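Q: My labmate handed me this sequence with no annotations at all. I'd like to see what the chain might look like in three dimensions before we decide whether it's worth expressing. Could you predict it?
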Amino acid sequence: MAVAELSPSHVRTQVYSFQVSSFSSRLSNRRRCAHRTPYSARVFCSVTANQVQAPIAVPTEASKNKRDCFGVFCVTYDLKAEEETKLWKKMINVAVSGAAGMISNHLLFKIASGEVFGPDQPVALKLLGSERSFQALEGVAMELEDSLYPLLREVSIGIDAYEVFEDAQWALLIGAKPRGPGMERAGLLDINGQIFAEQGKALNAVASRNVKVIVVGNPCNTNALICLKNAPDIPSKNFHALTRLDENRAKCQLALKAGVFYDKVSNMTIWGNHSTTQVPDFLNARIDGKPVKEVIKDSKWLEEEFTEMVQKRGGVLIKKWGRSSAASTAVSIVDAIRSLVTPTPEGDWFSSGVHTKGNPYGIDEDIVFSMPCRSKGDGDYELVKDVIFDDYLLKRITKTEAELLAERRCVAHLIGEGNAYCDLPEDTMLPGEM
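A: Here is what I predict for the chain of 434 residues:
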């Protein structure tokens, strides 16, 4: 628990174990900080003497007036002061929408611990919620505060994307409306599309010009397209739709069939849409360095059972578990980020839904389509050119491409392409839908 030790001149102000202030000016005054940590305040945490302690908090001039903070994080740690840990990098800002949800509940602590960006990378978490979820968002921030992560330097919470996304260098867009009973896919595209259009505008207005964006909220491919179209000042290459969970599921099934551990499976590509038209590519994948079809000779299993198993894994999980995947989704987000900030192993690649502009595969040049990527570890990526195709793979890729083109027509009004009309080939399901 954080405790502020105050000078006598401040005794008239009641001090709680944590104080909350929100980004959003729309929040009522009762939600704002009743107490501002004074310049003379010191912050103590219950850390035993033999534990490694973070650098001493040095309140800066900015911290005296700062209101976009939570609890102990209201005292800004001045990483430019003499107390700065010499081996640490410069702090990065990570914005997360849907921050009070189940996926975020697993993800945020991985980020704060250093598992995602590394053990020498301090982070500031900027958490976006809604009026309805704000109390839960406070609870998330309290748990982060209580976890004593040395690398977690700031936590901010709010409901206004224009304030939460300010100076964000990573934006993890998880929050979205789930598909309800009787809702057509076209309806879901429109409802969530409006959310991601607004978030794209906010990123364009206030985020870092090189912000990396990972869209998780479904339908994530088209939501990512909407987001990037509404952020014209940010390179379209910086936007990703999460298909890493599909890749992980495919690797697992191939490993099970081959009787090996999953780390023997490489070069796994998910092509296309994050829906039941997605294409898990066993033609280019490898097991222990050998082509999958040399290890698993059952072509019928690969083309039918394996493919359908990956496409519908999320729905099966819901039937077993009673809810959609959260922990494994969070892990796949970590994997997706790590693939961009660490060099790709020689000869391997990873899957990500990215803008198709300039792609070498002949896919339409203005959709977000999952494709094989490699990275040098600088946050950027390049598309893999040394892949092969057969008639089976091309046919499946054409089908998922057609679905994404139809989705784009459904949201034309949100991406500046005139009036929308929906002619979806079929009402396909998302991998996590019943």
